[in-house]
Amino acid sequence: MSASLLDQLNQICQSFAERPGDIAVIAHSKVDPALSVAINEDRPFPSASVIKAAIACAALDADDLDLSRPVAIGDLDDTFYCSILQAFEPDDQIPLKALIGLMLIVSDNPATTAILDAVGLDRVNSWLRKNGLADTNIAVGFDDASLGPPLRANLTTARNCLCLLQLIDTDPRYAQIKHMLANNLRNERIPKLLPDTAVITHKTGTLNGLMHDIALIESPDAAFHLIVLADGLPDDHDFGGDIARFSQQVYGLMAN
Model-level pTM greater than 0.85? Predict the structure, then answer.
């Protein structure tokens, strides 16, 4: 790694983080860890749906939880919001493992509630502490009553998000979670402008004024983590497009 390359990465990240709002960024090369820039990495943010990746890990580590156990669609929480589970009949059965997939791939909230009911908030928080994510917590779930302002009680940091992605990438226990995250269908942020050869293992999070995306990008040309947490964003700005263009810039630099 040259000093020039690190300087360029720092300039790209600093420029992005200077946009209106409260923004944290980490760009971290998997190939050369010295090629890394972190801005506001320890600032707490509402985690929104990013926390679902940790919920999935805690579920896989719960030895007493049978992930093949079927759940009737009619037994899941009703929701005012859109849910992929509306494609099923109430008597249809779906295993907990598949609900984890829906929680990660389409960020379905009733699926998340079912997994949290099975695992428990306390066990997720214990998993977070055990795995070194001390600045991340889950205080409320993803039922309709908890969405919006109450969900802001769940906190994380960019540094903890990087640790979470590194754990999912390197620990064989979480290989299936990595596979699910690589099939995320919400791809209008970090993945949008990246080449088709890139595999993007990522999870988004969204609330009013808040937009996150945390990712591991791997291709024949580059391998790096990119963390974007942002809150207090202006209502009239396409921040998702900003993330996509920023991701493209970082990819171009990492590919060199």
Answer: yes
